[in-house]
Automatic annotation (TrEMBL):
One of its GO terms (molecular function) is endopeptidase inhibitor activity. Keywords: Signal. It comes from Engystomops pustulosus (Tungara frog). Gene3D superfamilies: 2.60.40.1930, 2.60.40.1940. This is Uncharacterized protein. Residues 128-216, 221-276 form the Macroglobulin domain. PANTHER family: ALPHA-2-MACROGLOBULIN-LIKE PROTEIN 1, MACROGLOBULIN / COMPLEMENT. It comes from the Eukaryota. InterPro entries: A2M/Complement_sys, MG2, MG3. Residues 1-22 form the signal peptide. The keyword Repressor does not apply. It holds the Pfam family MG2.
């Protein structure tokens, strides 16, 4: 009786070991993929396969609204290995973002497994910045234009712009460039304002695919340009200080520094008399 109980227990142990061995022999794998795939870019999808069978085939696919692209890989049995494929990300159909699917199908002579993960295809956001060398011009002046197309990582795009146009305030096109090409990501252009132009505003429009940026400059007869003076000095000093720092900066309203000579004075005003102590300052 006791021998029979022991035999049954041994059979149960052998059966359990057999089941465990069968489970361990089952092929296991791990899929790694970016959750967000920017367009345009190339993205890598990897599959780690542990305990592959002989004649194992891996099919890795990326399915978007525009279609499906796949890679086929054949492997043999052996230890765990990592298999990676690089996909060229297609443009999202709506121009904003879409949900795509990464699928892995693993097939061998004795088993078949598959797994899918949803990913987001999102266009890299870009923006055009355009500026001129100053804001106000006279008839006959030369205008210098600079435009840059930055992506969300502040990397300049070196592809050609679609169009750059110069229009007066009546909508007339005065100058136009088709497909101008930047150098090192920066587009530099220039044009001469007609000496006989009617004073007013000129609009500069820069287009690149579906991106548009513009800026406006003024054309006027000669007027003294406006500038502002910024003074930086300590809020208070003591009578024991022999020196203290002071900074005076003059800039035009469009940002450029003013060239000229500064003449002024710094005074310590007396409260109960008119004997103020002043010191003249000058500079260029």
């Amino acid at each position: 009786m006791e021998d029979s109980i022991v035999m049954r227990r041994l059979m149960l142990i052998v059966l359990a070991l057999g089941l465990a061995s069968g489970q361990d022999s089952k092929m296991k794998y791990l899929l790694t993929t970016p959750a967000v795939m920017p367009y345009p870019s190339n993205q890598t999808v990897c599959v780690y396969v542990m305990l592959p069978d002989s004649n194992t085939k891996i099919v890795t696919s990326l399915t978007a609204k525009s279609g499906t692209s796949s890679f086929n890989t054949e492997i043999g049995d052996g230890d765990g290995q990592l298999y990676c494929n690089t996909f060229e990300i297609p443009p999202p159909m709506n121009g904003e973002e879409e949900v795509a699917t990464v699928t892995v199908d693993i097939t061998s002579d004795v088993q078949k497994q598959s797994m899918s993960k949803d990913v987001i295809i999102r266009p890299i956001r870009t923006e055009i910045f355009v500026q001129t060398d100053r804001a106000i011009y006279q008839p006959g002046d030369k205008v210098f234009i600079r435009a840059v197309d930055f992506n969300e990582h502040l990397i300049a795009n070196n592809e050609k712009f679609t169009e750059v146009t110069i229009q007066d305030d009546q909508g007339n096109i005065l100058k136009q460039w088709q497909n101008p090409e930047p150098k090192s990501g920066i587009l530099d252009l220039s044009f001469n304002i007609s000496p006989n132009i009617r004073v007013g505003d000129l609009k500069i429009t820069v287009t690149k695919n579906n991106l548009v940026a513009d800026t406006t400059i003024a054309v006027d007869k000669f007027v003294l340009p406006k500038f502002e003076v910024e003074i930086e000095a300590p809020a208070e000093t003591t009578i024991h200080q022999t020196t203290f720092p002071i900074s005076i900066c003059c800039k035009y309203t469009y940002g450029k520094p003013v060239r000229g000579q500064l003449i002024g004075k710094i005074c310590r005003y007396a409260i109960f008399s008119s004997d103020h102590i002043c010191k003249a300052i000058d500079g260029k």
